[in-house]
């Protein structure tokens, strides 16, 4: 039964309705499709991590943690960041444990962006950036990454910066393309923001998933950028537990103070038993240092399995995504292709147009290789059997 309300209301996001992700999810369920669409693992996390949560619960760590997070966990994060990237953060004032990386993004944007401000970000992009900006009464300014390599055109960034520009959102490694920033990108970003009040919001949830011996060029690796950056990362992506919804932010104390003001009223604190488990688990650096090789094996397997498919694969330097092109054998839209793959081949992917606010269609689909080997093999076999039209 539906409850009807007499209340008249105005939507803050009137153009947000049923997304392609929901449509694909429903269609996939109807056809029992192999899931290469969702950016979440289908394999189990390390039993040690689950045991750590159980122990924390049995030890009665079941109430609120400190608002900014568990102190030992925050200290481990600062030690990791200093060792890997050379930046030294204060665990007390410059680290915040959040109830997911998504909450970290929201708290950072809400705390630092004001009505009338402008926020530059790059498309294709994770779909929450622009709506969060709009909810603050600010203006999202989308710049398109240059194909085929999904690189930033820094001349376009320079031209897009105005006196109202408050923030630039970066995502490296990049979802959905799998591309990564390099040292030259950081140098250009630093040059463009020098002597401004522009904040860099850097979504680095795939920081440990960088391939082929390359380095993660995050904001903490560049001192000039670190001093104006909010870095967001994810325990869920790192440790294969996306449903646990725990992440963290790093930022200079003055910026973090504003972020915490939002966080304390939005969530107050992140999940306590999970924080204890992560603090215990992270004492072994191999839990995150082994991640690149782990996912590179999956990427390489997927590339090998799809070599005989009609699709052309684009390079993936990081994250757990591959893009596949079909413009050489089909005139279908990417959404039509994705629906056909579900119905005819029984495999679910994501159309790249879903990552553009204007629905730009480059005849590309996104595949997730964050799956067990059996799923990757079954999905690849189905894709290889597609008959070009």
UniProtKB/TrEMBL annotation:
One of its GO terms (molecular function) is kynurenine-oxoglutarate transaminase activity. Keywords: Aminotransferase, Pyridoxal phosphate, Transferase. It comes from Dryocola boscaweniae. Gene3D superfamilies: Aspartate Aminotransferase, domain 1, Type I PLP-dependent aspartate aminotransferase-like (Major domain). Residues 33-383 form the Aminotransferase class I/classII large domain. It comes from the Bacteria. PANTHER family: FI04487P. This is Pyridoxal phosphate-dependent aminotransferase.
């Amino acid at each position: 039964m539906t409850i009807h309300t007499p209340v008249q209301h105005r939507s803050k996001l009137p153009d947000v309705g049923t997304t392609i992700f929901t449509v694909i999810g429903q269609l996939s369920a109807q056809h029992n499709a192999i899931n290469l669409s969702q950016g979440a693992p289908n394999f189990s996390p390390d039993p040690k991590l689950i045991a750590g949560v159980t122990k924390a619960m049995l030890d009665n760590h079941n109430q609120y943690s400190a608002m900014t997070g568990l102190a030992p966990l925050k200290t481990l994060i600062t030690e990791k960041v200093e060792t890997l990237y050379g930046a030294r953060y204060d665990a007390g004032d410059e680290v915040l444990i959040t109830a997911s990386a998504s909450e970290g993004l929201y708290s950072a944007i809400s705390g630092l962006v004001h009505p009338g401000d402008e926020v530059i970000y790059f498309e294709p992009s994770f779909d929450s950036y622009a709506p969060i900006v709009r909810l603050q009464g600010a203006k999202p300014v989308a710049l398109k990454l240059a194909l085929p390599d999904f690189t930033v055109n820094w001349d376009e960034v320079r031209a897009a910066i105005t006196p109202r520009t408050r923030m630039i959102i970066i995502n490296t490694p990049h979802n959905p393309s799998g591309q990564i920033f390099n040292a030259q990108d950081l140098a250009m970003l630093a040059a463009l923001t020098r002597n401004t009040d522009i904040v860099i919001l850097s979504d680095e949830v795939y920081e440990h998933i960088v391939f082929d011996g390359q380095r993660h060029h995050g904001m903490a690796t560049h001192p000039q950028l670190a001093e104006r950056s909010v870095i967001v990362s994810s325990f869920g992506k790192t440790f294969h537990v996306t449903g646990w919804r725990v992440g963290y932010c790093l930022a200079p104390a003055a910026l973090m103070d504003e972020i915490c003001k939002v966080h304390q009223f939005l969530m107050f604190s992140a999940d306590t038993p999970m924080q204890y488990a992560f603090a215990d688990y992270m004492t072994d650096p191999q839990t995150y240092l082994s991640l690149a090789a782990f996912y590179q094996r999956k990427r390489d397997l997927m590339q090998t399995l799809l070599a005989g498919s009609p699709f052309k694969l684009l390079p993936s330097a990081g994250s757990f995504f591959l893009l596949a092109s079909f413009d050489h054998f089909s005139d279908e839209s990417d959404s039509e292709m994705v629906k056909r793959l579900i119905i005819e081949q029984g495999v679910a992917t994501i159309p790249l147009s879903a990552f553009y606010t204007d629905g730009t269609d480059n005849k590309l689909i996104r595949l997730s290789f964050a799956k067990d080997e059996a799923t990757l093999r079954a999905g690849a076999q189905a894709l290889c059997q597609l008959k070009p039209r």
